[in-house]
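Obj.: predict assembly geometry.
Materials: sequence records (below).
Method: joint structure prediction, all chains together.
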Amino acid sequence: MKFIGKNGVLRIFDGSKNLHGAAPRDEATVDIVTFDGTSTWANITSDVETDDAAAAENFLADTSGFVFIGSDVPFSLVKFLKGAGSHYAVASGALKAFYFDGSDFATALTGVSDGTASGGHCFAADGHISFKAPIDWAIAANGYNANLDADKYYIALQTTTSPSTDPDADVLCPVDGQYFEISFAAMDFSGPLGRGKSEEVLVLDRGNMSSKAHYIEGVDGKIYESLPVAFSALLDDVYNRERLQDALVCGNADDSGRWIAAGTTSKALTKNDGTNLNPAFADATKKTVNIHWIMESARTAGLDQGMAYYETYFPPSEITISEAEDGITLSAAGGCFGLIERIHHLCNRY
Amino acid sequence: MSKITQKKGTIRLYDSTATPIYLTMILDDGFSGPLGIPYTEEQLVLNRGNMDANAHYIEGSDAAIMEPLDITFNMLAQDTVFFGYFLDWLEGSEVHSTTIVTTKGDSQRDGSNANPAFADSSKKCCNVEYQLDVATDIVWHYNEVWFDLSTMTISEAEDGISIAVTGKWYGTVTRDTALTSGTDVTE
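Observations (raw structure tokens):
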């Protein structure tokens, strides 16, 4: 019943946004389908899965229509690019977003941020839509409608107003970072459960506790403090060899798999205060990564529990190597500067 | 007569709903908390540094009374729905579709004035009750406990994942013989 070390998975993500279905995230297969709200279904995957000359025109025509975006790998980010298309949406209203929970698409996604919005209207600009990957996100949506695949995780997007000009999409596809999954982890990961909040400073009337006593909020500095994250792993001559060190400093882990190019820093992609993007480092050579650690449920899909530590910096001086008779251990101690949140799926949200 | 061990312990978290919502901890141990609230400092005043009949104490600021103290216990991460409820509670989120009402301001540390509310209303307090299940139960009710997620560490090991739970206790503590009745949030 309790989770043990065997349940754990530890990944290092960079801050890049790569299309599902294309390297380095070509382990994923996508499926994008539109429904006009009446009877017509259309598969637009080939038009919107890459930035090329093909585009899906008028993919959302009125408020009863849906665009279903699916991938066989869970995701939290969708890229929208008009590109070769002719029109952004005009007067489309706010975005509505739902997910398949095993029964239907009636449940709204939470934590939705619409980077395609302009003037309060969705799909009015190029950008990314992000959301929190739900704990009860389910596959087998073919049971809902045969036009959807059995092995994909789907979300459904809608406009709140029938657009006066319907949007076109060159790209409308899940994206995610490059990642390196740590092998031979020593099962000793540790990190905080969340980010700190500002201090509550008690104000008393001449040192007397009375009905005039109240708290004032301290400076925001505490919200931005670096919080410790640490783990270690055994070095081997194939998987961790040089790649683990490269991934920790957001270099080029080049594992010929999910991390094949120089990493993109994840710094300044999250908002600790919920409003303002965290600042970039003064020294641009310091690159941060995102650490995702999850405990996979042995009981039921949907009970996976984990934590994501965004904007985590591992100073090279805090990455140590220690020799012992039975193995060489690489220990990494980093500081998390970004958002810390619970996750149920391994994917970047920012 | 026999000494009491941690086998007899139960920890519950309560909210401030009229009929309080509660969550009973599972796979927890190691509870630690103070038995009473702090008092003001006694500051000795001497006559030119001499101890004589003029020496006396004055009372320090009431701030000492209001200082939060730590309550701690350990929790094992579990492959259950309960564990999700526990994390939801710590975060101040909805628990099992139930809104948790903060207990901040529900007690009086100084005995006469309600403790002030937090300036940041997103910080939610709860009450923590620790019961020792013996012939006549011993229960301590700790009011107004805030869990600062940044001070709580989740630590992985081969044989289990543990969370060191630390709460800042702002309210009062009372000794009792029974846990507060209420509604189990898991039901």
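Conclusions so far: The radius of gyration of chain A is 22 Å.
To do: check interface contacts against the pulldown list.
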